[in-house]
Amino acid sequence: MIRIVVVGKKHETMYLDAINHFEKRLKPWQKIEWLIIPPSGKNHELARTEESTMITAKLGSDDFVVLLDEEGEL
Asked: H or E element: which one contains 57?
């Protein structure tokens, strides 16, 4: 199974076609699960910490994790 954990919205309009395309290609082989984490209303650093805690709580000890940033940075 592929579990996609995101903060905010599942599908930004500008990415919708690409998301649908890759979901369609993957579904015959892998179940896809979306977990949506609501964005924190706190300031930048506190929000990052709170959202990170919520994401970490959704991960299993044997999960393979790939992190992506919307700006391509760590």
From this structure: helix 44-57
